[in-house]
Design a protein that fits this description.
single chain; alpha/beta; Rossmann fold; 7-stranded mixed sheet; two-stranded antiparallel ribbon; 10 helices; 38% helix
């Protein structure tokens, strides 16, 4: 796109950018073009559709041009526009934390389904990142106390900003694994831990390179963090409490075995909408 005096209409920009992104190997070219233009013009995608023939101002065009360049370098759209929707909640996102994925909504849905009719208790989110899981649970399970921890101070600050913006009460603490909660026990422990094997990360889509590696890297076999999480979680869960964990492709059976070895019972493996075994839910024995 030249910096000449040409007046671009919305539809022309979207079509030009779609082709440009496709040439750069971006699968969601049209969607990304629309999202970035809507962001540059400070409007919604619906507004774009209603004004496809409208001219784009020079100021908005300059902003959009910069966004196009960064997206062509494979920076994720969520980081470029600074927002990612999760469970219908718009969350602020930046490079301090992992971008929430749609698959993780399944974990939240399954936990809510199990807890919504129970007497309110306490939930712990381990590795909260931008706060997606914790904030969703606080919003969907009123009366429940939600505590969220992360080893990254930056991620916790981002989660705090999101909780304040959404208007929910989440207790946020910095530290490794269960260290920030001491001897506390919870009725439910949830986590979307790092689970990608270290040697697979360089082969993933380029966008992954912009996200914090510590939120992705699960060690040599992808289960390093999950092993620690499961083995130590039993000291922080109440008798009869639930634990829910998101896992990667082809990890569910191994994680189920780890849960059973740690004394958990009734392990359930739940497939996501792509048919991948994505979430495991188990219970602590009543005599834990």
């Amino acid at each position: 796109m030249s910096r000449g005096k040409r007046i671009w209409r919305v539809i022309e920009l979207v079509e030009w950018t779609t082709g440009y992104f496709k040439r750069h190997g971006i699968d969601t070219a049209r969607l990304d073009a629309e999202l970035l233009l809507a962001h540059a013009m400070e409007c919604s995608r619906l507004d774009l559709y209603l004004n496809f023939d409208a001219p784009v101002s020079r100021e908005h065009l300059d902003i959009y041009r910069d966004l196009i360049v960064k997206r062509a370098q494979r920076m994720p759209v969520a980081y470029l526009i600074g927002v990612k929707e999760f469970m219908g909640i718009p969350l602020k996102v930046d490079r301090r934390a992992l971008i929430p994925r749609p698959e993780t909504e399944l974990l939240v849905e399954e936990i809510v389904r199990r807890l919504k009719d129970r007497k309110p208790g306490e939930i712990l989110d381990v590795g909260t990142g931008c706060g997606a899981i914790a904030i969703s649970l606080a919003k969907l399970l009123p009366g429940w106390r939600v505590v969220a921890i992360d080893v990254s101070e930056g991620a916790i600050e981002l989660a705090r900003q999101n909780a304040e913006t959404i208007g929910v009460n989440v207790e946020l603490r910095v530290g490794d694994m269960f260290e920030p909660v001491g001897g506390m026990r919870f009725d439910c422990i949830v986590s979307n831990p790092p689970y990608i094997p270290s040697n697979q990360i360089p082969n993933l889509q380029p966008e992954i390179g912009y996200e914090p590696r510590e939120a992705l890297d699960g060690g040599p076999d992808g289960l390093e963090v999950i092993r620690r999480l499961i083995s130590t979680s039993k000291y922080h869960i109440r008798p009869g409490g639930s634990i829910g964990i998101e896992v990667g492709f082809d990890q569910a059976e191994q994680v189920a075995e780890l849960m059973e070895e740690a004394g958990y019972i009734g392990v359930e493996i739940i497939r996501d909408y792509s048919g991948i075994e994505r979430v495991l839910i188990a219970k602590a024995p009543a005599n834990t």
